[in-house]
Amino acid sequence: MENILLSPPVAFVIFLLLSGGLSALFKRVAARGKDSGSKADAYACGESMPENQGQPEYSQFFHFAFFFTMMHVTVLMIATDAGNLSFMALLYLLLTVLSLFMLFRKEKPDR
Asked: How many domains is the chain built from?
């Protein structure tokens, strides 16, 4: 019985039910706020923000997202190796370093 309670799906369902019950309980106890017309307005640094003022630039976002993904997977692979660096772990680390160099290489300007 205690082994089945420690299995991830059963533990997930137990914590899901526990957190749902606590959420329902605390929703009844929480103080009620007052609705206002400005409740859903955007707010930035104490000033009202006009619509579409900020246009984020995502050109470098995917480079950094890919970098962090590669680093997390690499650390996971190396950390779960059997206590010593096997050939496959070293090969994986070498390929990761090579791909990071390719990811952040300087692009030559067009002439």
From this structure: 1
List all residues 6 or more positions away from 41 whose beta carbon is below 8 Å from its beta carbon.
48
Residue 53 has pLDDT above 60, yes or no: no
Alpha helices by DSSP H, 30-109: 61-79, 87-103
35 in a structural domain: no
Tokens of 67: 């970098």
* Residue 15 pLDDT exceeds 60: yes
What domain range is 81 assigned to?
58-106
∠ Cα 64 68 73 (to 5°): 150
Question: Which pTM does this prediction carry?
Answer: 0.41
Phi, psi angle pair for 43, to nearest 5°? -140, 130
Residue 43, Cα to own-chain centre: how many angstroms? 24
In a domain, 67, yes or no: yes
Length of the chain: 111
